[in-house]
Design a protein that fits this description.
The complex is a heterodimer of chains A (about 150) and B (about 180). Chain A has about 150 residues and is of the alpha/beta class. Chain A is built from three helices and seven strands. A six-stranded mixed sheet of chain A has the order 1-7-6-3-4-5. Chain B has five helices and six strands, in the order H-E-E-E-E-H-E-H-H-H-E. Chain B has a five-stranded mixed sheet with strand order 4-3-2-5-6, covered by helices on one side. The N and C termini of chain B lie far apart (about 105 Å). The chains are: A alpha/beta (about 150), B alpha/beta (about 180). At the A-B interface, helix 1, strand 2, strand 6, helix 3 and strand 7 of A face helix 1, strand 1 and helix 3 of B.
Chain lengths: ~150, ~180
């Protein structure tokens, strides 16, 4: 028998698990609150541009998106540049005026985020902008990524 | 008395599975959540033009004309320029009062207007790069002014004062005019 026998602690080596459901619930509630379920299917391809001097939109609830980019036809093929608002592709550019006006009536502090593909031409972007002016939705945001970040999925 | 004797059973919901259910929900929300930050360049469009009204007169020296064509070539006040130079040129133009005091550049930062005009064929990316440079110039001017006046960066300054009390914002208003693009060739 060795003289220097190791003293073993008599305490139980167990992590208390009784509080675990509470912690899980807390995490759950956090993610539930944070989650904004994506409600639109983007039917056009949008590769964002990058810029350095950008700002965050704080009030996400006020934001309405306009997507501009080549229509995706499936199988990795892309068609002409189209404008998408909510779930629908807009064929008649002058329809934007009425659509955005209706949105503005619902939410007076509306911010329109323009999510345009980096290769789309300024012509169509400008046409959309003119329509927004006519609708009275003057607060806009050119959606860009910070320089050096990857495209989101 | 024919009262039935009842055996009182304690009504209990089994709680052992609760953690599992919570886990399941947690994992669902974890997967679904996309914490995508909405970033971009904020702008306020001008209201639609009055068909009868004439545009207000602007002195030529207070206007900086930036033209960008479909190839991404830049013309500033009829002089060709490259993208990296733009920031310095804009800063010299806007802050002319405190710098060179060139009679061909703006009278004061408040009166200075930067007008960006593109072709219809210009790609959105080129336009955003251009706009980014101009906004960057204004940011630097504001930041310099804030450091000079208050000894803090502009970002800190904006956190401390309300939008209405922001003197520096008033000193350097972002007068950026985005003209309708040319039909181009």
């Amino acid at each position: 028998m060795s003289k220097f026998q190791k003293k073993q602690a008599k305490t139980k080596q167990q992590v208390p698990t009784t509080a675990m459901p509470d912690i899980i619930f807390m995490l759950l509630i956090f993610f539930m609150v944070v989650t904004v379920l994506r409600e639109v299917d983007v039917q056009v391809r949008v590769d964002y541009t990058r810029a350095e001097n950008i700002e965050k939109i704080e009030q996400k609830r006020l934001v309405s998106y306009i997507y501009i980019g080549p229509e995706s036809l499936g199988g990795g093929r892309y068609g002409d540049t189209k404008v998408q608002i909510d779930d629908a592709l807009i064929d008649d550019i002058f329809a934007i005026r009425r659509l955005m006006y209706d949105k503005l009536m619902e939410e007076h502090r509306l911010i329109v985020s323009i999510r345009a593909d980096q290769r789309s031409e300024m012509g169509i972007v400008s046409d959309v902008k003119q329509e927004l002016r006519q609708a009275g939705t003057l607060r806009i945001n050119y959606s860009t990524l910070r320089k050096g970040t990857a495209q989101p999925m | 008395m024919l009262l039935k004797k009842r055996v009182r059973v304690e009504a209990e919901v089994p709680q052992a599975g609760m953690a599992d259910i919570a886990f399941l929900l947690l994992i669902f929300f974890l997967v679904v959540t996309t914490i995508d930050v909405d970033t971009g360049i904020g702008m306020v469009l001008p209201p639609p033009p009055d068909p009868g009204a004439e545009p207000p007169p602007i002195r030529q020296r207070n206007l900086m004309n930036v033209l960008v064509n479909a190839q991404g070539m830049i013309l500033i006040n009829e002089q060709p320029a490259s993208l990296p130079e733009v920031k310095q040129l804009v800063m010299d133009f806007v802050d002319n009062q405190n710098r060179a005091q060139d009679p061909n550049l703006s009278e004061s930062p408040r009166q200075a207007i930067v007008s960006i005009k593109t072709d219809r064929q210009t790609s959105y990316e080129i336009f955003i790069d251009m706009l980014d440079e101009v906004i960057g110039a204004y940011r630097q001017l504001r930041n310099d002014a804030s450091l000079r006046e208050f000894g803090i960066t502009y970002r800190e300054y904006t956190n401390r004062v309300s939008r209405e009390d922001n003197i520096i914002r008033e000193m350097y208003p972002q007068n950026i005019s985005l003209a309708e693009p040319d039909p181009g060739s």
